[in-house]
Every structure is written in structure tokens, then in C-alpha cells.
């Protein structure tokens, strides 16, 4: 509130002070500022006038000018008088650290300073201190702002759950407003309770619509603008649930509304980029502009801003902007030297440039400098080695991760890779080291205990897998100790006993006989199963044939000696149609003509008319027959219809090489008829 005039001045000054009071009560701080400036012309060091001017400037949003006046008149406006106004201006100018120092240096902590102190702690992400401050305020305050304090308290709890993964305690806040419902939903999202969070958001949406209906005269666009932040959180839950299409649709609807909250737009644009990934990069490049809006850095938390920068670097990599990607990732690494993502992005960019050796060296340097994060980095290095085909080197890297050597997943991966490389000894060594780790762990936990302690399920599982692996690869002697250990843990395990007997049968038959006495009898092992019903069941693959009548022709079946296998009759080979049994076949008939001993090659000098070449339908007659001057004097008789034309005897002789086998034309005709029968009709 504006400070009232404390001293009477000359007539002009008194009138100006009355004007200041009247404008302050009406909320017209622009006119009040004019009157205060006139008073300061009369008395430039008037403390009350200076204080009133600072208040007017703050109410008009001129925080920088107000702070300038406070810093200029430090002798008059001491920290005891103007501490709250100074801290508030610094807070609004996003000088959060300076605001904190101003509040802490104040001689008296008023309620106004405590309220501002809570806001400053929230912006500095000191959530534990902020929670304590708001609890103290709610406990020691009773005014009309109690609902706002509870809302701020729930916002702190939601931030703790989301960013620090702290399980929030039940503060007993009644969700009477949509802000409280929204903050409660954010806290549930941080705990992973997405379905419950969605219900809270629907409740918050109902509260908003109910409130708008009471006000009346509000368009649907105004309602949607008010609900934008709630719908944005709903879309985020859909995205976490894998409903990316629904989430993307809702995100785009919010962007079309053009909300004034730049922080909300930046978060939605970032989430759309994460959905697009390496696809639709043109849309992602447009959405990046929303994350660069002015003032975004003051609206979002540090982790939100960091996530946006990571996605910018990844988008630069996907769009083949190598220099931009390296620049962004290097900047991120300088801000957070121990963070994994910047170095992983740099390694990924090097891999895209086919510089795998540099990528591995970069990851190795990071692992050496930050041993706490070495495990995840070495997993990535192993993956790169596998991609290069260096499976053995990948195994060496994985085995160097001491904290993961005994994990079943790591053991399984190493054994599989060594088996692929046919390095059975190394695979067995991996099993042995893991089993020894669990033995040492059990010895540490049971220190000083002489009572037999059963092994853990994971330990027993590793022993069983090791035994099965050794049996599979013929290492029966090595598998015996593992099987004996398993049988010792569970003497009633018939399967393990059977494996043990099988292994001993090849190594020590006498020991196998002794162990076989522990097998249960056949009576205890018999199963009461109706074989006929089982064979006739719906899922049976084998159905027993009904027995036919026995005849005397097959005495073997009557005696139950089983069926005699029928001998397959050998088919007689087909002989050629012109086969003559009196003529000895050519022993070289299976060889090509050129490789036969009697082949003399093609004869040269033959006339072309004897070759019989030409287009289809052309005559093979010689040129002498076509010469009219060489024909006989008596004209030939005209051939009868259907008979062959008469030609000279010399031209009618066909060499043996060009004779077609008898029936070749008929065979060809039959083949054509078969093709016609098999063809389908229609166009």
C-alpha cells in the first residue's frame, strides 16, 4: 500500500499529498507518480516521497527504474525502510541471488519478506528450504491469502516429486481449487502413477469449466486457453503411456491456441520434437523456434532447460549439422561435466561420420575421468565394438565393469558372445567368476555362522546354467561338481540327479550305479494317464489306426512279430523309341559330340544351299533350280492338290546330320496341344 503523508508542508505540497493518497486508493498509480515527482521537486530527499515513487514504479511495472532510485538514494532509503521493495524488484528482474541476499540482510523479517523468501527459494530450486518456509507461513498466518499459500506449498511438493524423485508426504490439503488438483496430478506423475494423475487432471478441468460457467459471457476459445496448461499435462501423460498419436494431436491443438505462456509453448514444442525423433525433422526445426522465445529461461526449471538443449543437439545431429551438434554438446558438457548425455551425443556424431575409433577413445577418456559413470559408458563402448565386429574386445570391456560382472544379464550376454566366438573356456570362466562372487557374498553376510545356509535363487540359477552349458559342450567332468552342489541343495530334485547319473556314467560308472539307487521306483514315478483318451484328444498329432482282420496269409502279424517292411520296386529305365537290342550302343553316347573320338569337325566348302539356313518358310532349293535357262525343256507336270512339289533328285537328299528323328513333329504337336489345354481362357 502507498505510504500516507506523515508531515504537513506548504499549501501546494499538502494538496499534492492529498492527490497522491486519492490516486493510490483508486489504483491510478500513473497520476500518483506525477504528483510524487512534483513533491520531490520541492523536497528531493523526502523519504516518504521517494518511497511512494518506488511503489508507483513497481505498480506500473517499471522495476528497473525503481531499483535505480533505491540504489541512488541509499543514504536516505536504508535497508530497514525499503528492503522488501528492493528484493521484489530484484526478483522481478530475475536477479534471484541478489534478492536472496537482500532478504537475508534485512534487520527485521516481516511477513512480506517471508512470502517473497519462499518464492525466491522456489526459483532457486531449494525445495526443502522452501517447503519449511511455507509451512511456517501457513502455521503463523491467518488472512485471505491462505489458499494461495497452500497452492504454493503443493507446487513445492510437486516439484520435489518430479525433479528430485522424493516421495511426497500427505499434507492434508483439500483440493478445493483447480490449481491444487493440478499440482496434485503433477506430484502423482513424478511417482509414476499416471492413471491417478489423469483422473486429477480431469477433475481440475471440471473445476475450471464450472468456474467459467459461474462467470458467464466467456467464449469457448477463452475456456480452452485457460485449460491449455491442464491439456498439456494430459498430453504428456499420453506420451508417457505410449499413446503418441493422441499426445501429438493434443499438443498441436494447444499450439494453435497461441497461449501467452512462453514456458508452456517451449515444453510442448520440446515434447513434439521428442515424438518426431529422426523423422519429420522439418516440423521439428520449426518447433525449435518456440523453445528459443524470450524469457523461456526464467519460466522453466534447470532440468527442463537442460532437456531442451539436449534435444537441440540431437536434432542438429539428425539434420547432419555436425558443427552445430558438436558446439551444443560441448556447451552442455562444460555446464555439466559429469553428465553422460553430452559425451554420448558427441560419440554418436562421430559414429555417423564413420569415426568409430575416435568415438571409443572419447568414451574411454570420459570413463577414466568419471569412474562413477564408467559402467554406462563402457556398455556403450562394448556396443560400438560389437557393431565393428570386434566381439572379443567387447567382451573384455564388459568384463572390466566390476559392479556388473555377477549380474545374470551380464553373465548371459558374455556367455552368448563367447559361444558365438567358439571360446568355450572363457564362457566357463565367466560362469565360475559369477558363482564365486555369490559364494563370497554369502560368506560375508553369514560371517561367524556355522549353520548350513541355503543358496540364493540367483546363485542356484547360475550353477544350473553353468552345468547345462558344460554338459552341452561335452565338459561332463566339470559339470559334475556343479550338479553335485545342486543336488546337495535339493536332494529331491530328480532332474538334477538324472543329469548327475548321466555325467558319471561316462566318467565313473560305479558311482553312477550307486547314485541310481536314489532314483524313485517306477511305481512312484507312474502317472495315472488314460492313454486312449490322450491319443483321441483334439490336440493329438498321432492317432492309432484300428486293427484290421488278421488273415492266414500273413503269419508274422498273427504272432505279433511286427510288420515286414515293403521293398520298393525299382522302376525300369525308359529306352529310346528307335532302340535296337541287336545293335551295341555307342559307349561315347554320353559325351558331347565335340569330345567323341570319331568327331572330325565340320566340313568346309559345302555349298550354302545344302546348309538349309534361312528365314522360316524359305525354300532350300539351289540357285540352279531357280535359273530358268537351266531347266528341262519339257515342263513339269503340275502337282496335284495335297501332294509334294517335284524337285530334282540331287536337291532332295538330306544329310544324316540334319535328319530329324521319326515322330519329332508328332511329339512337338502333342506338347503344343498340352500347353493349350493347360492355358486359361479369357483376355
Automatic annotation (TrEMBL):
Q: Which SMART domains does the UniProt entry name for this protein?
A: TPR (SM00028)
Biased composition of type Basic residues is found at 565-575, 667-683
The record ties this protein, via InterPro entries, to: Signal_recog_part_SRP72_RNA-bd, SRP72, SRP72_TPR-like, TPR-like_helical_dom_sf, TPR_rpt
- Which domain of life, per UniProt? Eukaryota
Q: Give the compositionally biased regions (Basic and acidic residues).
A: 577-598
- The main place the protein resides is cytoplasm
Biological process according to GO? SRP-dependent cotranslational protein targeting to membrane
What protein am I looking at? Signal recognition particle subunit SRP72
Q: Which gene encodes it?
A: Srp72
Amino acid at each position: 500500500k502507498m505510504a500516507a503523508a506523515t508531515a504537513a508542508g506548504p499549501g501546494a505540497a499538502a494538496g499534492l499529498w492529498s492527490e497522491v493518497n486519492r490516486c493510490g486508493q483508486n489504483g491510478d498509480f500513473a497520476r500518483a507518480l506525477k504528483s510524487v515527482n512534483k513533491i520531490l521537486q520541492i523536497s528531493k530527499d523526502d523519504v516518504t516521497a521517494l518511497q511512494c515513487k518506488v511503489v508507483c514504479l513497481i505498480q506500473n511495472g517499471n522495476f528497473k527504474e525503481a531499483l535505480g532510485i533505491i540504489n541512488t538514494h541509499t543514504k536516505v532509503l536504508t535497508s530497514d525502510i525499503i528492503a522488501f521493495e528492493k528484493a521484489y524488484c530484484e526478483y522481478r528482474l530475475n536477479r534471484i541471488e541478489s534478492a536472496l541476499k537482500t532478504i537475508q540482510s534485512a534487520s527485521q523479517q516481516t511477513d512480506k519478506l517471508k512470502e517473497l523468501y519462499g518464492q525466491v527459494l522456489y526459483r532457486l530450486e531449494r525445495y526443502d528450504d522452501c517447503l519449511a518456509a511455507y509451512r511456517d507461513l501457513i502455521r503463523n498466518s491467518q488472512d485471505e491469502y491462505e489458499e494461495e499459500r497452500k497452492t504454493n506449498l503443493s507446487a513445492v511438493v510437486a516439484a520435489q516429486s518430479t525433479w528430485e524423485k522424493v516421495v511426497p508426504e500427505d499434507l492434508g490439503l483439500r483440493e478445493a481449487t483447480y490449481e491444487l488438483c493440478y499440482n496434485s496430478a503433477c506430484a502423482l506423475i513424478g511417482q509414476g502413477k499416471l492413471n491417478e494423475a489423469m483422473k486429477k487432471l480431469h477433475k481440475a478441468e471440471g473445476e475450471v469449466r464450472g468456474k467459467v460457467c459461474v462467470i458467464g459471457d466467456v467464449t469457448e476459445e477463452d475456456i480452452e486457453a485457460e485449460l491449455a496448461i491442464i491439456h498439456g499435462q494430459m498430453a504428456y501423460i499420453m506420451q508417457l503411456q505410449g499413446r503418441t498419436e493422441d499426445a501429438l494431436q493434443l499438443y498441436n491443438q494447444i499450439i494453435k491456441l497461441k497461449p501467452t505462456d512462453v514456458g508452456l509453448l517451449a515444453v510442448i514444442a520440446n515434447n513434439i520434437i521428442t515424438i518426431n525423433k529422426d523423422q519429420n525433422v522439418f516440423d521439428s526445426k520449426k518447433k525449435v523456434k518456440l523453445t528459443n522465445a524470450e524469457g523461456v529461461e526464467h519460466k522453466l526449471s534447470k532440468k527442463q532447460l537442460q532437456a531442451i538443449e539436449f534435444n537441440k543437439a540431437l536434432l542438429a545431429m539428425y539434420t547432419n549439422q555436425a558443427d552445430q551438434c558438436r558446439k551444443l554438446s560441448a556447451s552442455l558438457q562444460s555446464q555439466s561435466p559429469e553428465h553422460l548425455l553430452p559425451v554420448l551425443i558427441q560419440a554418436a556424431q562421430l559414429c555417423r561420420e564413420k569415426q568409430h575409433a575416435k568415438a571409443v577413445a572419447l568414451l574411454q577418456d570420459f570413463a577414466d575421468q568419471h569412474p562413477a559413470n564408467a559402467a554406462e559408458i563402457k556398455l556403450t563402448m562394448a556396443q560400438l565394438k560389437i557393431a565393428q565386429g570386434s566381439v572379443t574386445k567387447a567382451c573384455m570391456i564388459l568384463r572390466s565393469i566390476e559392479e556388473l560382472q555377477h549380474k545374470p544379464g551380464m553373465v548371459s550376454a558374455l556367455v552368448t558372445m563367447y559361444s558365438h566366438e567358439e571360446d568355450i573356456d572363457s564362457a566357463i570362466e565367466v560362469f565360475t567368476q559369477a558363482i564365486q562372487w555369490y559364494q563370497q557374498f554369502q560368506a560375508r553376510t553369514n560371517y561367524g555362522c556355522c549353520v548350513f545356509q541355503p543358496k540364493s535363487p540367483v546363485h542356484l540359477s547360475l550353477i544350473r546354467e553353468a552345468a547345462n552349458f558344460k554338459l552341452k559342450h561335452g565338459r561332463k567332468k566339470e559339470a559334475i561338481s556343479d550338479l553335485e552342489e545342486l543336488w546337495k541343495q535339493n536332494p529331491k530334485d530328480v532332474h538334477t540327479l538324472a543329469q548327475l547319473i548321466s555325467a558319471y556314467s561316462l566318467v565313473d560308472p560305479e558311482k553312477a550305479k550307486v547314485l541310481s539307487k536314489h532314483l524313485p521306483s517306477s511305481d512312484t514315478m507312474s502317472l495315472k494317464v488314460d492313454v486312449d483318451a490322450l491319443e483321441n484328444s483334439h490336440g493329438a498329432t498321432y492317432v492309432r489306426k484300428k486293427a484290421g482282420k488278421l488273415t492266414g496269409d500273413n503269419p508274422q502279424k498273427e504272432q505279433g512279430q511286427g510288420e515286414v517292411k515293403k521293398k520298393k520296386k525299382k522302376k525300369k529305365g525308359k529306352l529310346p523309341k528307335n532302340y535296337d537290342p541287336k545293335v551295341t550302343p555307342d559307349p561315347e553316347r554320353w559325351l558331347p559330340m565335340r569330345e567323341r573320338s570319331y568327331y572330325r569337325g565340320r566340313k568346309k566348302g559345302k555349298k550354302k544351299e545344302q546348309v538349309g539356313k534361312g528365314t522360316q518358310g524359305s525354300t532350300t532349293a539351289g540357285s540352279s533350280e531357280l535359273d530358268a535357262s537351266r531347266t528341262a525343256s519339257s515342263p513339269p507336270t503340275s502337282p496335284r492338290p495335297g501332294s509334294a512339289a517335284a524337285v530334282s533328285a540331287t536337291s532332295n537328299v538330306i544329310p544324316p546330320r540334319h535328319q530329324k528323328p521319326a515322330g519329332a513333329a508328332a511329339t512337338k504337336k502333342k506338347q503344343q496341344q498340352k500347353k493349350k489345354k493347360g492355358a486359361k481362357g479369357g483376355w
